[in-house]
Amino acid sequence: MKMDQFYIIHEGNCKDILEDVSLFPDNSVDLIFTSPPYSDRRKTTYGGIHPAEYVSWFLPISEQLKRVLKPKGSFILNIKEHVNNGERLTYVIELILALREKGWCWIEEYCWYKKNSYPGKWPNRFRDSWERCLHFTLQKKFKMYQDAVKVPIGDWSKKRFKSMSEKDFIRTFSGTNAHFGRNVSNWLKRKKVYPHNVVVFEGEHYIETTNVVQLATECHNRNHSAAFPVELPTWFIKLFTKKGNVVLDPFMGIGTTATACLLSKRNFIGIELQKEYINEAKQNIESLRKLIAFNNK
Ligand SMILES: C[S@@+](CC[C@H](N)C(=O)[O-])C[C@H]1O[C@@H](n2cnc3c(N)ncnc32)[C@H](O)[C@@H]1O
């Protein structure tokens, strides 16, 4: 029997809603992908939490996230601390340490490199072009589908690399300041790594995946001042879930994670405090559903 995808949206404070075990049974979610308020950055639009209170505000929420996440699931937290009074705030670092104390494994920090970050010039720092996507799990063994985010490149690469000599390989790598020692060609053969960040898998050439995810930010407002681009949740959804799995975004905003789920055939549960964002999310989901249904006719 073919099951329909589900999209469930709850209005309210995610801490209270997550505590309702009839809505959120234990071990029921495959991936949590979310971007909470960045402290009090946007207190004039959707409120905020003072940096000094951030960890104590987030920990009870994280306890519920821990309860609902499946043992081999993942939690990705997109966040970036801002500058206050000439220094970067430290609440994100404190949060990472506090989450580890509470039993979360901090597996990785992915860097979302924002190719079109907001321009600016400061006397003491450069343009801020990246955000954190912190990867937490409940155990060291978790589900990860690395092949799902492979980026294939054209057949041109096969011909090009075939004609490269060992010297070409060494030259290309030293040009990137990579230090693989003198046995670079053996190392390359073993690892099946080619110059220009190309890897070979089952005879096909791919761009090597790294922990830097390069994506443009949203250029237009989309009725939310802090919406992320749909490609961001999509990349992590593909990496950590399969079709039909359940993705939770407890700070849903206008539902960008929901859109990513619709497009990648995952189920979605979202929570959002503000009615206007919920309405916008519902409209976005409905229009996209109609479009998908129309295209599938
Ligand atoms: C950074 S924005 C998320 C934007 C979202 N990723 C998108 O693309 O639309 C954070 C959202 O969390 C919501 N929010 C803040 N506190 C909340 C809470 N306690 N429970 C649920 N939602 C909350 C805010 O209203 C805001 O829309």
Account of the 3D structure:
There is one protein chain. With 297 residues, the protein is α/β, with parallel strands linked by helices. It folds into 2 domains: 7-148 and 210-296, Vaccinia Virus protein VP39 (Rossmann fold, 3-Layer(aba) Sandwich), CATH 3.40.50.150; 151-207, no CATH class. It contains 10 helices and 14 strands. It has helices spanning 14-18, 43-46, 54-68, 91-101, 156-162, 166-175, 184-191, 231-240, 256-264, 275-296; strands at 7-11, 29-34, 69-79, 83-84, 87-88, 105-114, 130-137, 151-152, 193-194, 198-201, 204-207, 212-215, 246-249, 267-272. The strands form 3 sheets. It has an 8-stranded mixed β-sheet. Strands 8-11-10-9 form a 4-stranded antiparallel β-sheet. Strands 4-5 form a two-stranded antiparallel sheet. A hairpin with a 2-residue loop joins strand 4 and strand 5 (87-88). Helix 8 (231-240) crosses helix 9 (256-264). The longest helix is centred in the C-terminal third of the chain and has 22 residues, at 275-296. The radius of gyration is 21 Å and the shape is globular. The two termini are 20 Å apart. The relative contact order is 0.18. The mean pLDDT is 87. The structure holds S-adenosylmethionine (SAM).
